[in-house]
Amino acid sequence: MVNLLRRACACVLLCIAVRAWPAQNRASLLPQLHAGQKLTYQIRLRIDKRTQAESHVASPISPAERPVDILRTITVEVLEVAPGDPRDKLIVRLHIFDPAISPHAPKTLELSIRPDGTVGPPQGAESLSAEDTQAWQAWLDRFALAWSIPAKTAKLGEKWTGEESIFGAPLAQLSWQRESQYVRDEKCPVEQSPADRCAVLLTTAILKQRSSAKDATPDDFKLRQLKTQGTAKGTNEVFTYISLSNGLVLRSSEEAHQFLDVIIAKADGSNQVHYNIDASSSTEMLLLP
Q1: Do residues 192 and 234 touch, judged by C-beta distance below 8 A?
Q2: Looking at residue 104, what DSSP letter applies?
Q3: Which of 68, 190, 274, 285 has fewest C-beta within 10 Å?
Q4: What are the beta bridge partners of residue 111?
Q5: Strand-pair category, 102-113 with 249-266
Q6: Domain containing residue 203: CATH number
Q7: Whole-angstrom Cα distance, residue 153 to residue 13?
Q8: Four-CA torsion 182, 136, 284, 171, nearest 10 degrees
Q9: How far is it, in rounded angstroms, from Cα 122 to Cα 112?
Q10: Is 139 helix (H, G, I), strand (E, B) or coil?
Q11: How far is the C-alpha of 107 from the C-alpha of 136, rounded, in Å?
Q12: Are 86 and 31 in contact (CB under 8 A)?
């Protein structure tokens, strides 16, 4: 149950609805990649989660949770890429470094990024820690942001929206609703591109619940003779800086807050456990020289 609750507080990449746009005064925000290319990103995730749990058949449960601070350096090696549009085919190898352990002992992961920005089953995932997994998934969400733009090019001031359902959560009919906008162009905020200009994208997302708070049982919980009720809320705000010269994501920052209040019980209403989770997080990603 705990893993399912954690998934409800995860930040997910949204599938964006496709729209047709005129091609004038547009910039390509897709990365210009070639086989053999290497890029190095630093990513930091800070997560502060407070959980309270109460059961009518046992003593109150209040797990002690310390703030999580994850710092990783990820070197991206391009193995294969489709000419013209990396969304058609992109296979990369990630070398994930934990500076707290050793900069010379990376974990390796191979990914095939699909046209919608998701990935097939990663090769090498079994050797990763939970923190390594959180880091590369956060990297992917930001690196593949341009995959969610409705066309190959984007226009200043343009907006696009999308929605993605959340599966595996203890409450049914949850989804993230996202609105993104190409808000401005400005000088890129990184040392290695002092003369470059960046497109600045702002993305806001709201966690929506369409199920009734009194009966929000997902189908997989019903199969296990369980019943759930409760509410979930959440907001995310992300600023992304994309180089106008090469389409690379140079910096991304995100602030998120999510709240879950759920009661899980047997189908007959017995053995209730009440969970209350309040989580906030911040994520920073930077392309290193």
Answers
A1: no
A2: E
A3: 68
A4: 92
A5: unpaired
A6: 2.30.230
A7: 20
A8: 80
A9: 7
A10: helix
A11: 11
A12: yes
Domain that residue 122 falls in = 2-287
Model confidence, pTM: 0.82
Separation of alpha carbons 248 and 198, rounded Å: 9
pLDDT digits (tens, 9 = 90+) for 14-26: 232 223 333 345 6
CB 254 within 8 A of CB 246: no
CA distances from 135 to 73, 75, 118 (A): 9, 12, 15
Going by DSSP bridges, is the β-strand pair 26-28/68-81 parallel, antiparallel, or unpaired? unpaired
Question: How far apart, in whole angstroms, are the C-alpha atoms of residue 235 and residue 155?
Answer: 26
DSSP state of 97: E
Instruction: Give, for 229, the enclosing helix (H) or strand (E).
Output: strand 226-243
Closest residue by Cα to residue 108 from 93, 126, 90: 93
- Give how many domains the chain has, as a whole number: 1
Say which residue, 64 or 38, is predicted with more confidence: 38
In this structure, are strands 38-55 and 68-81 parallel, antiparallel, or unpaired? antiparallel
Name the token pair of 62.
Answer: 């209040």
Which residue is it, tokens 């002690």? 64
β strands within 138-224, DSSP E: 153-155, 159-166, 174-187, 197-209
Cα–Cα distance measured from residue 103 to residue 101, given in angstroms and rounded to the nearest whole number: 7
Classify residue 186 as left (phi > 0), alpha (psi -120 to 50) or beta: beta
Q: Give the Cα separation of 158 and 145 in Å (integer).
A: 15
Tens digits of residue pLDDT in 44-77: 999 998 888 887 655 455 555 788 899 999 999 9
156: amino acid identity, one letter: L
